[in-house]
Amino acid sequence: MTLYALLGAVEQGLVYGIMVLGVYLTFRVLNFPDLTVDGSLPLGAAVCAVAITSGIDPFLSLFLAMFAGFLAGMITGFLNTKLGILHLLASILTMIALYSINIRVMSGPNVSLLGRDTILDPLMGLGLPGYLSSIVLFSFIGAAIVIFLIWFLHTEFGQTMLATGDNPRMITSQGVNTHSVIIIGVGLSNAMVAFSGALIAQNQGAADVNMGVGTIVAGLASVIVGETVFGRGGIMRAVIAALLGSILYRLAIAMALSMKLGAFSFTPSDLNLITALLVVLALTAPKIKARFFS
Predict the structure, then answer these.
(1) Of the four listed, 27, 99, 112, 125, which is most buried by Cβ atoms within 10 Å?
(2) Cβ count within 10 A of residue 130
């Protein structure tokens, strides 16, 4: 693997790591399988791209993207809690609806940001090359969100979210409205996913309606890889493991794509196969380790 491929994998791991933190919030904290992320990631990118092309500041466009993602997540939570639709089906319905909504937002399948101002421009203006500017910026943003999430999960509302995911009957008996907790929690998760989508759009120079395909698979794989390598004891360790898991996942993908066994080599079309193999390896590694090294 070349140095540029290594830096590219770290950059991808950091920017998609924000999405992984959102997936961690629903998957591990709320115990809510949420496929909305396949639609909310391009939603964030679409809102951000349209805002920038309309003359809105690139930094402000990130907040608009987060708000749109928050609303999308709240709709999934509403369908599940208030209308009684199974959480998996509710998220699929929102994801399908977002495909059409994203095309409406962009007035087409994609929007280019080439030649437009982005949040990377100030760092590049200081003389940093583009590939280092993105790593520096995404590292700062990722660390800030990790700190925020650790703080948030230690607040009273964060503890309520953890209790809702662990034992909803117990927390309901304490007089807590779990419906509100789930709606806000799923909304917050998708706000982070949409924020990640907005950063990806500004980094790649375009938003596309299909850029969210496979997001949930990559997110879950990153969470599982992080937990397998770094463990999940305690909130701080689990949140940091989710972000680092995203980087490891992207590095593993890059290594697999650069690997050659004789005449055989992986191609980008094998991405889903590599992801599936990584998840199987991550899930079975603890059992194999316990069996042969205990």
Answers:
(1) 27
(2) 12
- pLDDT tens by residue, 117-175: 899 888 888 877 777 888 999 999 999 999 999 999 999 999 999 999 888 888 888 88
CA atoms of 143 and 149, how far apart (whole Å): 10
DSSP-assigned letter for residue 214: T
**Strand blocks (E) in the chain:** 110-112, 206-208, 260-261, 264-265
Residues 6+ apart with CB under 8 A from 186: 26, 30, 32, 34, 36, 73, 74, 76, 77, 80
Give Cβ neighbours of residue 251 (< 8 Å, ≥ 6 apart): 6, 9, 10, 13
The residues that bridge with 142 in the sheet, in sequence order, are none
Name residue 167's beta-bridge partners.
none
> Are the CB atoms for 79 and 186 separated by under 8 Å?
no
Evaluate whether 264 touches 30 at the Cβ level (below 8 Å): no
Q: What is the pLDDT of residue 173?
A: 83
| Average pLDDT taken over every residue of the chain | 90
CB 31 within 8 A of CB 80: no
Q: Which pair of tokens denotes residue 292?
A: 């042969």
Find, among 276, 285, 277, 284, the residue nearest to 217 by Cα.
Answer: 276
Long-range contacts of residues 225-234, Cβ cutoff 8 Å, at least 24 apart: 225/249, 225/252, 225/278, 225/279, 225/282, 226/20, 227/282, 228/282, 228/283, 228/285, 228/286, 232/28
Distance CA 252, CA 258 (A): 10
